[in-house]
Write a structure and sequence with these properties.
Number of domains: 4
Distance between the termini: 28 Å
CATH architecture of the largest domain: 3-Layer(aba) Sandwich
CATH superfamily of the largest domain: Flavodoxin domain
Largest sheet: 8 strands, mixed
Strand content: 15-25%
Mean pLDDT: 90
Bound molecules: flavin-adenine dinucleotide, NADP nicotinamide-adenine-dinucleotide phosphate, flavin mononucleotide
Radius of gyration: 25 Å
Low-confidence stretches: 1-5, 16-21, 23-42, 199-212
Helix content: 25-40%
Number of helices: 18
Structural class: alpha/beta
CATH class of the largest domain: Alpha Beta
CATH topology of the largest domain: Rossmann fold
Length: 569
């Protein structure tokens, strides 16, 4: 937690000097890990206290919490931004005004760091919160069944514990900027009138993107594509591409652990099939978020042709005929429709194309002015037709020829190599989960960090799927990679996975943890990350001679001290 002092009006400066100093101080403090905006210097008016609590897995809620703090500071609040990992339920009665921003992960679960507070608020152990005023902003994605569930839970638990909901919860879908801005404005106004803050300072407008960043999700950088290289050998059942972008002159900066947002373009063949199914020629002018464009351009650049929105199924009157057992795509729905809509009405019922996040696989220290990704191409069959993941195949097939791709940096402060260069690092990253660990290892090499490094990697077959084999072997030879344990699942009759290797090496793994190692997991969330978590508990039980409860407490303390971090998808 850090503090951003505001120069009070009573200080001996002109208004211009004060504005400059406030901007200067805000600039300095906005670069710190967390913010405390608006605390006055001595003799300044007392500001209304406000706590902004965030729960995040990949950094969005944290970044919005910091924007909320800046806005609250302008409106006369002394805002403190806190990660849910830093707050216990017992401490909540000490807070008068609370804005809570959280995402949802897993199957309707809170982010990892928010889980202890979530369970403390729900298990009957939390104190009364009758003096707390609050509002919740929930981040989620309507593609998941339990949309914004963690935010809904926090909202319900706070109410049940006697806290006063000052404005209704807002549930944000992937386009969270506008609803977040409206929620923040409404919640700050309500808290302001209840606490006396905000009256004289409520003159600013909010922006859902950090002011210091010139390129962002809303204003992506058109990055030249330097390389797209298949990392699998011929005969592989997988297709993972190493992709390099040039950032020269962009001013974009990132750290190992961050993700890159990529805004894809739809495949020309799919766009043509949709245009044909509509009975159009593609030249028809249709509305888009950036103004009227020909239908073909609009469908290529602006609209999602994947899973249709309920509005499209209604427009096409096919809601019953194209539902389960398999999720249809926009083209399936269109082909099933008895009558075809006008192109304008059709695009009006489509969702906007969304960026995809990729864990960055380069360290900026090893590759100045470049950013690298490790992208698994998504290809499958549905209803007898071949289908392609939009972004992964845009990068695999078209980005290089296209020349550029629209990208932005998605900061993830919750996933970083150890701050202490001497701390050991254990990384579990099968498949594309290797991505951030290539960056972590490059970072450790570039900074000559003396800490030991242990990587568990796995994929289907050693001969075709040993991603970055040459680089990893060289890192082993140079001593940067202390241990490399491999699990090729299909090289033998029975499956061998990374968690099998963890268990085989339980004593040494536990010894590394006891020596202060940080434990990292990246890759598949639905199966691998869960099984690795189970295996970690077993390692601590077996090698640490602990009961299941003691092992769970040991692992919880790794999480609390940020020594167990996950980047899973
Ligand atoms: C923080 C984060 C980091 C990530 N890092 C990486 C990374 O480093 N590397 C990487 O490759 N990916 C990564 N991903 C995943 C990435 O963002 C995309 O989700 C992935 O590339 C697929 O996007 P797409 O546009 O190609 O596919 P989409 O067009 O989004 O299609 C994917 C959808 O297709 C459907 N689908 C897929 N397979 C099947 C099937 N067999 N049968 C039926 N339906 C199916 C599912 O509905 C699935 O959701 C990350 C995700 C997150 C959130
Ligand atoms: N949510 C999203 O947006 C999104 C989008 C794209 C991909 N994904 C996920 O990302 C994953 C990454 O794909 P990838 O191709 O890089 O790797 P992957 O499918 O995770 O495969 C890598 C290795 O992990 C093995 N594996 C399978 N199940 C496992 C388990 N329960 N525990 C440990 N290892 C296991 C695989 O073995 P076998 O194959 O031999 O079983 C393979 O050897 C995909 O599985 C997919 O679920 C998510
Ligand atoms: C693996 C995974 C699981 C998710 N599960 C859910 C979910 O169950 N419900 C939901 O509404 N959103 C879900 N989301 C969407 C996130 O909540 C959403 O992207 C959010 O903006 C992320 O915010 P964060 O960066 O602060 O963690 C999921 C996202 C991922 C990658």
């Amino acid at each position: 937690m850090s503090t951003v002092p505001l120069i009070p009006e009573t200080a001996p400066f002109t208004a211009e000097q004060r504005a400059w100093l406030n901007g200067f101080l805000a600039g300095i403090f906005s670069r710190s890990a967390a913010s405390n905006v608006g605390r006055p210097l001595a003799d300044a008016p007392v500001l209304a206290p406000l706590t902004i609590l965030y729960g995040t897995q990949t950094g969005t809620a944290e970044s919005l919490a910091k924007q909320a703090a800046k806005e609250a500071g302008k409106r006369g609040f002394a805002a403190t931004v806190l990660d849910m990992a830093e707050v216990s339920a017992d401490q909540l009665p000490n807070h008068a005004n609370l804005l809570l921003i959280t995402s949802t992960y897993g199957e309707g679960e809170p982010p990892d760091a928010a889980k202890p507070l979530h369970s403390a608020l729900s298990n009957g152990s939390a104190p009364s919160l009758s003096s707390l005023r609050y509002s919740v902003c929930a981040l989620g994605d309507t593609n998941y069944t339990l949309f914004c569930q963690a935010g809904k839970d926090f909202d319900a638990h706070l109410e049940k514990l006697g806290a006063t909901r000052i404005t209704p919860r807002t549930d944000c879908d992937v386009d969270y900027e506008e609803p977040f801005t409206v929620w923040l404005d409404t919640a700050l106004s309500a808290l302001g009138s209840a606490s006396g803050a905000g009256a004289s300072l409520a003159t600013s407008t909010t922006s859902a993107e950090p002011a210091v960043e010139s390129y962002s999700k809303k204003n992506p950088y058109s990055a030249p594509v330097l390389t797209v290289r298949n990392l699998n050998a011929p005969g592989s059942a997988k297709e993972v591409n190493h992709v390099e972008f040039d950032l020269t002159g962009s001013g974009l900066v990132y750290e190992a652990g961050d993700a890159l947002g990529v805004i894809p373009q739809n495949c020309a063949d799919l766009v043509s099939a949709v245009i044909q199914a509509l009975g159009c020629d593609g030249e028809e002018a249709v509305p888009t978020p950036v103004g009227e464009l020909p239908l073909r351009t609009a469908l290529t650049q602006h609209y999602d042709l994947g899973k249709p929105a309920p509005a499209l199924l209604e427009l096409l009157n096919v809601a019953g005929s194209v539902s389960a057992p398999t999720t249809p795509h926009v083209l399936d729905a269109l082909l099933a429709a008895a009558t075809k809509p006008a192109p304008g009405a059709f695009v009006g019922a489509l969702k906007k194309i969304q960026p995809r996040l990729y864990s960055i696989s380069s360290s900026p220290k090893a590759h100045p002015d470049q950013v690298h990704l490790t992208v698994g191409a998504v290809r499958y069959e549905l209803n007898g037709l071949p289908r392609k993941g939009v972004c992964s195949t845009f990068l695999a097939e078209r980005a290089l020829a296209h020349g550029t791709a629209a990208v932005y940096v998605h900061s993830n402060k919750a996933f970083r190599p150890p701050a202490d260069p001497t701390a050991p690092m254990i990384m579990v990253g099968p498949g594309t989960g290797i991505a951030p660990f290539r960056a972590f290892l490059e970072e450790r090499a570039a900074t000559a960090a003396p800490g030991k490094n242990w990587l568990f990697f796995g994929d289907q077959r050693a001969s075709t799927d040993f991603l970055y084999r040459d680089e990893l072997t060289a890192l082993q030879a140079s001593g940067v990679l202390t241990r490399l344990d491999l699990a090729f699942s299909r090289d033998q009759k029975e499956k061998i996975y990374v968690q099998n290797r963890m268990l085989e090496n339980a004593a040494e793994l536990y010894a590394w943890l006891e020596a202060g190692a940080c434990f990292y997991v990246c890759g598949d969330a639905s199966r691998m990350a869960k099984d690795v978590d189970v295996a970690l508990h077993q390692v601590v039980e077996l090698a640490g001679k602990k009961s299941p409860e003691e092992a769970a407490a040991y692992i919880q303390s790794l999480k609390t001290t940020k020594r167990y971090q996950r980047d899973v998808y």
